[in-house]
Amino acid sequence: MTDIKLTVVIPMAGYGTRVRPHTWSKPKPLMQVAGKTVLDHVLDVVATATDLKNCRLAFIIGYLGEQVIDYMAAHYPEVETSYYRQEEMLGQTHAIAMARQVISGPTMVLFSDTIVRDDLSFLLQPGQNADAIVWVKQVEDPRRFGVVSLDGDGLVQDIIEKPATIENDLAVVGYYYFACGEDLITAIDRQLNDRMVTKGEYFIADALKLMIESGLKLTTKPVDVWLDAGLPDTVLETNRHLLAARLEEDGSQMRNNGVKVIPPVFIDPSADVTASVIGPNVTIGPGCQVSYSKIEDSILEAGAVVETSQLHASLIGERSVVIGGRGRLDLGDDCLVESC
User: pLDDT at position 340, please?
Assistant: First the structure.
């Protein structure tokens, strides 16, 4: 670890419309996967670079952003944080620019619905001399993503959004590093002043292109694991992957009270689970009550109650109650489903 201060900008002002009904009552980064919020998993990655106490975390918040402020105060009270409200959804770099007053020196930009599994311990160490780094993952069909094009020296020469062809197969995953954050702000200011928009929004790809034109040496960092929390199906997929990784690290949980656990599973110690079959790929949050049920490939948020039900591929919001449920359910917070 190093004592160099790292600035981390985390835009999260979107409405999370693709994950409704859950985001009617909570910001998407506070959804639970594998026993932690999505935000916790993102900050776990940051912590591999340096102790979070050596970070300046700048959050760009919007709808329900007060919950993020409260969450950070409760769970990360010793970490330096600042918050900037994006009232107009004008794009990525419009959001980043709102935190300009704290952006200096080594800076990361992380988008909050993306989780990678990577060790960033190299980032602030002596000998790390890259001007900037973009994290990428090789994909079979790059036409759905933004991708990088590399020159003969392996440096990024262009960023292409949803290419028509497949020869450039390194997709941009949403993690960026800049050795000098001030250079990023300079490029963003030029982008904003010249109104360089794509479909009405300001994207970080256009700012990066300006930086490359100005001589920035942008390298890539491949990752093997790129997880998304932007859709209900991808939330469940991310839950499956992180539970499997947690099982490798911690071993399976043993339960009694007539409970059969089929790993991988996370059951919060405060949950009350009796006479049920749980798993595989299930997260049960704090204060949940589950009885006489079979649950697989699902997430139960804090305080959910499930009785005499058989659920699969389900997302059950906080304090929601399911009695006699069957099949797949997607419930926000404080809902009731009771079969006749």
Answer: 61
Q: What is the DSSP string of 63-99?
A: TTHHHHHHHHHHH-TTSEEEEEE--S--BHHHHHHTT
Q: What is the pLDDT of residue 339?
A: 83
The CA-based dihedral angle spanning residues 96, 102, 105, 107, taken in that order and rounded to the nearest 10 degrees: -40
Q: State the pTM of this model.
A: 0.88
Q: Determine the residue type at 325.
A: G
Stronger pLDDT, 259 or 161, i.e. the higher one: 259
| 3 state DSSP class of 148 | strand
CA angle 120, 121, 125 (to 5 degrees): 120
> Treating both helix axes as pointing N-terminal to C-terminal, what angle do 65-75 and 38-46 enclose, rounded to 10 degrees?
60
DSSP-derived secondary structure letter, 254: P
Residue owning tokens 């300046």: 56
Distance, in Å, from the CA atom of 28 to the CA atom of 62, rounded to the nearest integer, reads: 11
Which are the contacts of 325, defined by CB distance < 8 A and separation ≥ 6?
A: 306, 309, 310, 311, 337, 339
Of 106, 168, 122, 179, give the one whose Cα is nearest residue 143.
168
Q: What is the set of domains in the chain, with CATH numbers?
A: 6-228 (3.90.550.10), 252-338 (2.160.10.10)
23 against 265, higher pLDDT: 265
Rounded Cα gap, residues 253 and 261, in angstroms: 7
Half-sphere exposure of 271 (CA within 13 A, CB side): 30
Cβ(134)–Cβ(221) below 8 Å? yes
pLDDT digits (tens, 9 = 90+) for 172-204: 888 999 999 999 999 999 999 999 888 888 888
338, β-bridge pairs:
323
pLDDT, tens digit, 9 for 90 and up, residues 89-143: 888 899 999 999 999 999 999 988 788 888 898 888 766 778 899 999 888 887 8
Alpha-carbon distance 28 to 113, whole Å?
Answer: 7
Segment holding 101, helix H or strand E: none
Beta carbons within 8 Å of 221's beta carbon, 6+ residues apart: 118, 133, 134, 135, 136, 175
